[in-house]
Amino acid sequence: MEHNIARIALFAAMIAALGLVPQITLGFGVPITAQSLGVMLAGAVLGARRGAAAVGLFILLVALGLPLLAGGRGGLGVFVSPTAGFALGFPVAAFATGLFVERVRLPLAGLRAGLGAVFGGIVVLYLLGAAGLALVTGKSLGEAFALVAVFIPGDLLKAAITGMLVQALSKVRPETLAWHRGVAGAGDRRL
Asked: What is the rounded CA–CA span in Å between residue 110 and residue 161?
């Protein structure tokens, strides 16, 4: 139990630390940030429930006013800004990523995690992020999707990084991945 709590807290801290990476804010108020990589990794490593719990803890700390989001943002105002859908979507994205890696059988742990990150960290997160952007800015859903589409190449890179890190982790410490059993390359130190 304590081990799970420590891992959840560790991933929440990692997401906060990724907010320190310099960001670029686009004209419509949504920044390019490394924090979505942390969301992808939380789901891919911890699984659906614990990954969502880690990201939920991070979002709770943001709501309480800690300036943990990229650019030093925090507080309830975040949840009525153009980024509201993304912030509220972070725990859902981690859950979806984790659910994918837990349920979809693929031959390599890294492939499983990378595709899970695309599903949760891009498809699910963009649906929620674009919906929030449309709601806050008064744009149509199509316009909001067109605006956030500029993030896709960077997020595909983050999904690939997630896959590579999880593949390496599956070789070195497969026991840290609750879903690792039966995946080629997971725990096989010869690969």
From this structure: 9
